[in-house]
Design brief:
Blueprint (H helix, E strand, L loop, with lengths): L1 E5 L3 H12 L3 E5 L3 H8 L10 H10 L3 E4 L2 H6 L3 E4 L14 H13 L4 E5 L7 H10 L6 E5 L9 H6 L4 E5 L5 H8 L6 E4 L1 H32 L3 H9 L20 H14 L5 H13 L1 H11 L6 E5 L14 H11 L3 E5 L4 H7 L5 E3 L3 H5 L4 E4 L4 H4 L3 H7 L4 E4 L6 H5 L4 E3 L6
Parallel strand pairs: 1-2, 1-4, 2-3, 4-5, 5-6, 7-8, 9-10, 9-12, 10-11, 12-13, 13-14
Antiparallel strand pairs: 6-7
Helix pairs in contact: 1-3, 5-6, 9-11, 9-12
Pfam families: UDPG_MGDP_dh, UDPG_MGDP_dh_C, UDPG_MGDP_dh_N
Family: Belongs to the UDP-glucose/GDP-mannose dehydrogenase family.
Pathway: Nucleotide-sugar biosynthesis; UDP-alpha-D-glucuronate biosynthesis; UDP-alpha-D-glucuronate from UDP-alpha-D-glucose: step 1/1
Length: about 425
């Protein structure tokens, strides 16, 4: 199939590359010329394991190309996938301006029947609005489909090539056969729904996963007070097939470009139809508060943070990505700085992106994990990179000025700590 993918962010780029990988002819389009030039030269603007190699393979195989020329790409293809960003506006609503601009341009460029699939996460009813908008700019027939994306950063390629399910939201029979044919090599678990339900499935799925995380974080907070171990609690709960074991890792709360944005947007979507989504509001509030447990634990041991040196391991919102959008590390470091602490931070991949978000005279970016830990009064682990887990704790103990370890991601075990004199705090586990 000949496919144009509009938008080369995470979703657009990975989907485009994966559709090429399974044998389609794909052209990825973006307005940002620097991004397209970078991709044309074999460079990848995001860090995602395996992506660079897969792009190279498909470009050389003649199945994948990059352009800023949307009209030519639209005219040359039969399926157009819209995957432009829908960032949050200050009030939490999704900003649809990129989507609207792209839809108008697609309408003007059409030269025959097209299927226009929307992968961007959009409020219920948006796909229908996009249809009306395109209709205003073209005389040609077309169908709209809502095909939400469920890939995770860091495992984007395997999530796309082996998805748990594909959701296809349509309001006509016509595009179904082609869309089924396109997705069948990926999975048999395909649900064809109406468009509004497809839009809702995306928000409901992210909101549910966010709810699981806030739930286990509150259980962890209670575990700390009653002397239970949240890891064992989560394992025990997860054996129940109705609950399932995933997304029950307690920590410092969720971040990233999806859960914070989509939970706020769903609260807004409900509010717009006079429904107060009380549960989701609490999920968001619990998540925001969870990160401050790091500060509370530091203050419990060090009392005043003024003049203290705090080492931070991990700045990305999760491992295997350089993405720092809505990373809990941002607010944690800002709070430490506002309390007068000196902060030494290290992340193996996300450091440059983080530096663009936050610079301060009391914040130093270090080139190794050991450099960050050296002479610090405490070390806080915020992202569960493998490199941190594999660090020798006996060596680490000699580096720190004070052996205080605040583990925000439950990376170290009792056995590892047994031969050290660390004062150790984790999340929801006995110290
Ligand atoms: C999330 C969803 O998992 C994807 O299905 C969805 O497609 C994507 O959003 C999106 O809407 O585009 P992503 O944000 O890349 O994917 O990353 P996740 O692996 O879901 O992690 C999100 C956050 O939750 C991270 O900060 C992570 O540390 C945190 N988390 C996750 C926990 O604190 N505990 C867990 O048990 C799982």
């Amino acid at each position: 199939m000949k496919i144009a993918v509009i938008g080369t962010g995470y979703v657009g780029l990975v989907s485009g590359v994966c559709f090429a990988e399974i044998g389609n002819e794909v052209i990825c389009v973006d307005k940002a010329e620097d991004k397209i030039v970078c991709l044309q030269n074999g460079k990848v603007p995001i860090y995602e394991p395996g992506l660079k190699e897969m792009i190279h393979k498909n470009v050389t195989g003649g199945r994948l190309a990059f352009t800023t020329d949307l009209p030519t790409a639209v005219a040359a293809t039969e399926l157009i996938i819209l995957a432009v960003g829908t960032p949050s506006l200050p009030d939490g609503q999704a900003d649809l301006s990129y989507l609207i601009a792209a839809a108008e341009e697609i309408g003007r460029a059409m030269n025959g029947y097209k299927i226009i699939a929307i992968k961007s996460t959009v409020p219920v009813g948006t796909n229908e609005k996009i249809r009306s908008l395109i209709q205003m700019h073209t005389i040609y027939p077309f169908d709209i489909a809502s095909i939400p994306e469920f890939l995770r950063e860091g495992s984007a390629i395997s999530d796309t090539l082996n998805p748990d399910r594909i959701i296809i939201g349509v309001d006509h029979e016509e595009p179904i056969a082609e869309l089924l044919e396109l997705h069948r090599p990926l999975t048999d678990q395909i649900l064809v729904t109406d468009i509004r339900s497809a839009e809702m499935i995306k928000y409901a799925s992210n909101a549910f996963l966010a709810t699981k995380i806030s739930f286990i974080n509150e259980i962890a907070n209670i575990c700390e007070k009653v002397g239970a171990d949240v890891s064992q609690v989560a394992t025990g709960m997860g054996y129940d097939k109705r609950i399932g074991p995933s997304f029950l890792r307690a920590g410092i709360g969720y971040g990233g470009s999806c859960f914070p944005k989509d939970t706020e947007a769903l609260i807004q979507i409900a509010g717009n139809v006079d429904y107060e989504f009380k549960l989701l509001k609490s999920v968001v509030e619990v998540n925001r508060d969870q990160r401050f447990n790091i500060i509370r634990k530091l203050e419990l041991e060090l009392s005043d943070l003024k003049g203290k040196t705090i080492a931070i391991w991990g700045l990305a919102f999760k491992p295997e990505t350089d993405d720092v959008r809505d990373s809990p590390a941002i607010e944690i470091i800002q709070t430490l700085l506002s309390r007068g602490a000196q902060v030494k931070a290290y992340d193996p991949v996300a450091q440059d992106n983080f530096r663009r978000q936050l610079t301060h005279s009391s914040l130093t970016y270090c080139s190794t994990a050991e450099d960050a830990a050296a002479h610090a009064d405490a070390l806080c682990l915020l992202t569960e990179w493998k490199e941190f887990r594999e660090m020798s704790l006996t060596r680490l103990e000699t580096l720190l000025r004070n052996p205080l370890l605040i583990d925000g991601r439950n990376q170290f075990s009792e056995e590892q700590l047994a031969s050290t004199s660390f004062i150790y705090y984790s999340v929801g586990r006995p110290n």
